[in-house]
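In response to reviewer comment 3 from the previous cycle, which asked for concrete evidence that the modeling workflow produces usable outputs, we include below a single protein chain processed end to end. The sequence was submitted unchanged, and the resulting structure tokens are shown without manual editing.
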Amino acid sequence: MRINRGAHRVWAYLRSAPGTYVWLTVLFVTTVALHHMSPEFEEEFLRQRSTNIHELSSNPPRVLIASAMWIDGGHWLPYVVLYSVFHAPAERWLGTARWLAVCATAHVLATLISEGALRWGIRHGMAPASAVNTLDIGVSYALAGVIAVLVYRIPAPWRYAYGFAVLVVYGVPLVTGRTFTDLGHFTAVLIGFGCWPLVGGRGKARNPKETAAAPAG
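The workflow returned the following structure tokens.
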């Protein structure tokens, strides 16, 4: 039956990128949990799981992991699209272990670098002392790193156009906004570009013309 075939294809698609969709499932559960919290409790709850300077100084491993399990703002559906467009193809291409290594490297290093810059700004009077407790949670640094590493999946000359577009998308906010999160996102992109050693041996770049010309079935 068509319904059974459709369900089988969906299940096969999900199984092809297990890490991506397990992560999305966790984010769905935590997002539902946030919607059942009062605004006051939610703010304090997330702050304790935030990778701000105060929490990083107390227990960095705990908050680095916990911060990637929550979405600031409570909108889960956009991440279904973003994970399916970027994370899932990257995981299928790199394999779960290498994909996770890109995610973790971008998330951890971008967090430490951006929070380090914020700490420097506080010490030099460029940011208020209260910024040590700034709320900083979410999955956007890992996403930025994966978006960047996918440049190696695209053949020339499309690769250069894609890479330039990524730099513009993340570079403009850094220049105009100059917040520590803008720095974190741009840093994560550079880290993704620097993950070339993880890409080696994962097959040739995908050619859109060859894909379009491939026979069906």
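The CA atoms of residues 60 and 124 lie 24 Å apart. We consider this sufficient to address the reviewer's concern, and the full set will be provided in the supplementary archive.
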